[in-house]
Amino acid sequence: MNRTRSQIIRFLLRNGPSTCGQIGTGLRASPSTIRRQLLLLRRAGLVQHSASQFDALPEQVQRQVEALAESFTGTVMPPAGSSPMN
What we know:
Largest sheet: 2 strands, antiparallel
CATH topology: Arc Repressor Mutant, subunit A
Shape: elongated
CATH class: Mainly Alpha
Helix content: 55-70%
Order of helices and strands: HHHEEH
Number of domains: 1
CATH architecture: Orthogonal Bundle
Distance between the termini: 32 Å
Strand content: 5-15%
CATH superfamily: Winged helix-like DNA-binding domain superfamily/Winged helix DNA-binding domain
Number of helices: 4
Structural class: mainly alpha
Strand order of the largest sheet: 1-2
Mean pLDDT: 87
Number of strands: 2
């Protein structure tokens, strides 16, 4: 996930439902950047849109984080107790 999308998720989790303008002001990002990233986050199922506000879906975010962490297990980190490669 890119930096702006991560910032948007954190913003929404901290502040609750917010408009695109509120998110942009809070993150000091242009409205077009925020809209584009919110569209991608909606498609991924991490935020929802109702009326004129966006809101993060904490359960979906948590599942995404867990899936990402699981994808690193054993592929990036050597198993506990193994010796480093020389």
